[in-house]
Design brief:
Layout: H1 2-6, H2 9-16, H3 20-34, E1 39-41, E2 46-48, H4 50-78, E3 82-88, H5 90-107, E4 111-117, E5 131-132, H6 160-165, H7 172-177
Helix pairs in contact: 2-3
C-alpha cells in the first residue's frame, strides 16, 4: 500500500523509514505468498497489475475499516454510545437503579438500556448481559468483575395487630427462644439460604 500511495519503491522506503531493498524484498515475499504478480516493474516505473489493483483496493478498505473502528472506540470513550443490557432485582431495580439510568440516558442520548427485572441469578455470558446488580454473597468467579455498591440490611417486621396477639420479642435471642410461638414468612431467593433460627446462630447472616 505504501508503494502504491507513494508512487514508487524509493518514496515508500522514505515514508516507512526503510531501505529501498527492504521494501522490494517485502513486496516480493508478498507476491510469493499470494502466488501472483502485484506490480509491473520497469527501470523507470512500477505499475499495478490487475490482481494488484484489486488486492490494493481490498487492503485499503480493510485499513479504512480499522481506522473507523478505532475512531468509534475513541468516540465511545468521550461520549458513551450503544445499548447496555442489565439485569437487577425487581424492588431495588425499580426504586433505586432505574431513576439513575433515566438521568444517565438524558445526559447521553446515544446510550440506551435493555433492563430485565428478576430476582434469580443469571448466567451473564450465556444470556448476553453486560451488567448485573445483585445483593448477597458473590460466588467465586474468574470471568466476572464485581464492585460493592452499598449494604442492604434485612429485618424482621410485624404488624401492630399481630403484636397485640403475640408476645413482642425484645431481641433476636428472644425471637429464637419463642420461635414455636410465632408465625412468619421468610424471604429467600435462588442461591441464598434461609436464615437459621437455631440457638447456635446468635445473629442473622448478612445480606
Amino acid at each position: 500500500m505504501a508503494v502504491v500511495e507513494a508512487g514508487n519503491f524509493a518514496a515508500a522506503a522514505d515514508k516507512l523509514k526503510l531501505t529501498r531493498s527492504a521494501v522490494g524484498k517485502s513486496v516480493a515475499r508478498l507476491e510469493a505468498r499470494l502466488d501472483t504478480r502485484l506490480f509491473h516493474r520497469t527501470t523507470r516505473s512500477h505499475r499495478l497489475t490487475e490482481p494488484g489493483q484489486s488486492y490494493y483496493e481490498r487492503c485499503r478498505r480493510a485499513r479504512d475499516e480499522l481506522a473507523a473502528a478505532g475512531e468509534e472506540l475513541e468516540a465511545g470513550r468521550r461520549d458513551p454510545v450503544g445499548r447496555v443490557r442489565l439485569t437487577m432485582p425487581i424492588i431495588i431495580g425499580r426504586l433505586l437503579i432505574a431513576p439513575l439510568l433515566f438521568d444517565l440516558g438524558e445526559r447521553h442520548p446515544q446510550l440506551s438500556f435493555d433492563i430485565t427485572y428478576r430476582d434469580r441469578r443469571v448466567d451473564l455470558i450465556e444470556e448476553g448481559i453486560d451488567l448485573a446488580i445483585r445483593s448477597g454473597a458473590l460466588d467465586d468467579s474468574t470471568t466476572l468483575a464485581a464492585r460493592a455498591l452499598g449494604r442492604q440490611v434485612m429485618g424482621v417486621y410485624a404488624s401492630p395487630g399481630y403484636l397485640a396477639k403475640h408476645s413482642r420479642p425484645a431481641s433476636y435471642e428472644d425471637l429464637v427462644a419463642q420461635r414455636t410461638s410465632h408465625r412468619f414468612v421468610g424471604y429467600a431467593r435462588q442461591g441464598w439460604r434461609q436464615p437459621c433460627l437455631c440457638r447456635q446462630c446468635r445473629h442473622p447472616p448478612p445480606l
